[in-house]
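Entry for the shared binder. Reason: the reviewer on the internal report wants the predicted structure included alongside the sequence.
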Amino acid sequence: MNKNAAGFIAKSTIKAPDLEHRRKINFNIGKYNAAVPKGQQQFANLPLVREKAKNIKWRAIEHLDTLLEQFEKQITARGAEVIWAENTEQALAAIGNICKAKNCTTVVKSKSMVTEEIHLNHFLASHGIESIETDLGEYIQQLDGEPPYHIVTPAMHKSKEDVAKLFADKLGVPGGLNPAEITQIARQKLREKYTAAQIGITGANFILADIGGIALTENEGNARLTTAWPNTHIVIVGIEKVLPSVYDLPLFWPLLASFGTGQQITVYNSIITGPRQAGETDGPEAMYVILLNNGRTNLLANAKTREALYCIRCGACLNACPVYKNIGGHSYETTYSGPIGSVITPHLNGMKDYEHLSFASSLCGNCTQVCPVRINLHELLLENRLESVQDGNSLLSERLAWKVWKMASLHRGMMNTGNGKLKNKMVHQLFKNWTKHRTPLQFSPKTFNELWKEQAQKQ
């Protein structure tokens, strides 16, 4: 077992029976489950909307090369610079060079999973640059020294009492503050950082190829301040976020909002098409867009798992997943947790090191059921399992055990041999690790075939 799988099992074993953790998560996801159906009522025909969204993302990914080049041509014509980063190292090097050229000492960041993916805050700190998360949930996690727990709700696992205690410990404010008071303190602290920062860094919810723009959607306004105050704006975005046209946003913005938070539309929606233009009074003097690959073309090259690139990062599959709700986001030890993380991480970071994530699923299919762009997540998890075995990542003992199991299952005489106790003993010796995290298998004294024959004889 590799260290990543061992860490996952260790953390999930501790977290799964933690009833207080489960209480907090069930409370927060319960609020989400109550809000989402209301938000989805804005669509007269939700299945048709999801199908249309999937088709648009299919077209975008199938024409990814030409759409990205179109985006680059359009946005560079207005003064932005596009940087193509093959991996984390190239992305960080580009950011480091920009920071050095701008004599940067302070950076403000809006919420971005891609910056978490490349561990940007750690990189900046190692170069003596202060990096401040401006999303409230991310700010809470940064104060606590933790990565985001959830794609959309970074501090979902914390109660309001937890956050109040954290603020008292880290910021020296009175304990027992309510959420409104906590928000006001965070606002006061962060506003000072916006005006001091030389560079603002954001991700992008979507890349708009036809107009050469990035689309940001948020509820706090922190992304707008991050892009407005500093003289330099850096965008870091995965290449899969492209949409063919700005006219796709009237579909995707409400879809992302309703499946992500249960809103009809998020509060602040921005399209940024370059740095400050002649005659404009605000905006950054310079803008850089870093298009990050970092393993995404591995998914693109795989015809069966390519549709995982359709993901719009709404977090719906995490909220629906029984495994995620029991073990929590941090147990995965990856940037992207839950079903979508279990699908894409083995391809982004290596199947050998992360194949265990695809096996940590009930395969209930609820993730597929709630996906706004109808990604067949549970089928992709099975595909990952198949590819893992075909790549030779399974143990010899495991392969032999399943071979024996298959042989027995295909021979009625072997299935009917012996009583239930004998079969229990044989199977538990064959699959010794099964009961470490599961209840023991219990065979019935007689098979269904034997019971059927007995019943037929009575008649």
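Summary line for the report: The chain has a mean pLDDT of 93.
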